[in-house]
Amino acid sequence: MRAAVLHEIGQDKLDVLDDVEAVGFGPGRVRIRVRATGLCHSDLSAMAGVLPQPGPFVPGHEGAGEIVEVGDGVGHLKPGDRVVVCWLPACGTCPACKRGQTHLCLAGFLNAGTPNFKRPAGDVFGFAGTGTFAEEVVVDAGCAVPIPDDVPFDIAALIGCGVTTGLGAALNTADVEAGSSVTVIGCGGVGISAIQGARLKGAAEIVAVDPVVSRREAALKFGATKAISPEELADVKQSVTGGEGFDYVFEVVGRSTTARTAYEATRRGGTLVVVGAGALDDFLQLSMFELFFDEKRILPSMYGGGDVLRSYERAIALWRAGRIDLAGLITHRVPLTDINEALDQMRTGVALRTCIEI
Questions:
Q1: Cβ neighbourhood burial of 102 (10 Å; 0-12, 13-18, 19+)
Q2: pLDDT tens digits, residue range 41-74?
Q3: Is the N or the C terminus of the chain less surrounded, counting Cβ atoms within 10 Å?
């Protein structure tokens, strides 16, 4: 089977190999033939060691495909079913699930410590317990979420991570108020989805901030009212809000420096939503006085901050109704053999989302 493998953490290229085998099939598990997968920035972060992930590993967690085989005890899926890969499945029994915070369930993270693949040279892990840069992957049945037949695989793949994360940050975590002012810092696939979520909620001003010109141009097409470079943020804060700051600011980069910028762009009593996944040793510094005096809400948003399955259904309904544009997020397409081209597209910022067709 063909898969893209990172041999050592810190390497910047993937090796596309034909000697990889998906392992772990058995009771409660399913085998998925991956048809399309998106490249998310979290994949690059794991490759660089920013996000913890044992190696060697197959990156990819934003995928969709069809069921090939189901293990004993799996009654809700059958061969041929179309599914989206959920890298953060809910167990339904832990304290977080019982509280209704299924996006905080840790069951999916436990999968990350078990190899999903093997080669003649030894075991290979799958990123986030999945590893969708492969022709097939074996996962727990809860990681395979059925999708309607009218949802293309490439659209479904986006819903598996980036769209759910960005939309949910605006709709669930922030619950953006109609008529409010919003800034989104970082306008890749997740940031653009947050912009679409803010537009759905009726935000009056949506300022997109990104250093890449093509991403700023795209943000305007997806609902931003202004698109600026980071250097322009202070002036736009003054012109749009009279210097007070924005009602909601979304940090979609995952760095303490941009989170600090986002905090300063947020008005007193406003809401900073931290969406980007950052490093364990990258600390955001805030004084106890400013926390008290500014009374700004700081809301981290994990995978869109809501019930994952409901979020998938909502994204599909909004897409069907023409309320959100998902096809437009896919700016590039490459076969798995050209996966390193997709990595370059992400690193340079020329792509919102690259679809890897498998």
A1: buried
A2: 999 999 999 999 999 999 999 999 999 999 999 9
A3: N
